[in-house]
Amino acid sequence: MKRPKSRYLRFSFRFGMGMPVLLMALALGLFSGNTLLAQEEPEENEPLRTRMSLSAVQEGEDAITLKALVRAKIDNRFTGLPGLEVAFSSVTDSLEQELGKATTNEDGIASLSLAKTKLLADTSGAFPLAALFEGNDEFGDSDDEIAITPAAITLEAVEEDSLRTLVATLESLGTPVPETDLYFYVKGMFRPLRIGEATTDEDGMASVEFPTDLPGDPEGNLNIIVRLEEDDAFGTVEANLSKAWGIPLETTPGHTPRELWSPSPPLWLLLTFIALLLIIWGHYLEVIYKLFKLRKNAAES
Q: pLDDT, tens digit, for every residue of 141-153?
């Protein structure tokens, strides 16, 4: 009669056969772990892509300001990038001339003002312009090009009897520019106040009646602006003049009138703001009171 194998022998056999499998599994686990670690090693961050928009503001017959807006998509929206150096140049088919460099401000805009005589013109008389941001470790490079046709606005203030009129004439290369919308403003403390708009006639002229109720400085002076805004051919063209057509501002030392255009807001606006704050904070206090009440009722029950 055969003796059955002991449990010890059966365990030893199974353990001995299982050891190679276990060791192979451990080796595979270590290998795959190293592979995962290698895959999870952070790659070097690529520079963020940027976009540039180049524009120009023609100020009178002789001056022009170039503006380059540099942006990048951050948190799903395009944001202006400050502190970046932008190089401006004037480029034709056969020549290239460096105009200068500027650094973007907090809004991502780099501005360079210069005389139009420094610009190169192509065969049509337009100014081909270019701007370039070369990029850095954080942001990628970007550039833009535009062609601006020379233009200028002449602004006159005409007063007949009690009627005051602003007359603007738009010309390009000595020729009137018809059928073009011009906008008239008065410079304010925070932003220009639009007072009218008009379309140029066949002689390039447009006029608007000037209001008589605008406050000026103590002498009644107002800074008046006329502007052609972001035209495809001319860019932005503007002219301005100072005229004593405002209501003289009577002030005493240390006193500022309560007006919309002054640092001290009107009383009605201040009271409206305070009332809105009280309503908002009233809702907050009501919510806090109800939360404490619910907590108290829960503790009692």
A: 999 999 999 999 9
- Using the structure block, give the residue that is written with the tokens 């370039």: 132
DSSP 8-state class, residue 247: B
Start-to-end C-alpha separation, the chain: 79
**Domains with residue ranges and CATH for the chain:** 50-148 (2.60.40.730), 152-243 (2.60.40.10), 254-291 (no CATH)
**Apex 69 CA angle, 66 and 75, nearest 5:** 175
| pLDDT tens digits for range 19-62 | 554 445 455 554 454 544 444 554 567 899 999 999 999 998 89
Residue 68 DSSP SS3: strand
Can you tell me the distance from the alpha carbon of 168 to that of 178, in angstroms, rounded to the nearest whole number? 12
Quote the pTM value: 0.67
Cα dihedral 188→191→195→198 (10° resolution) = 140
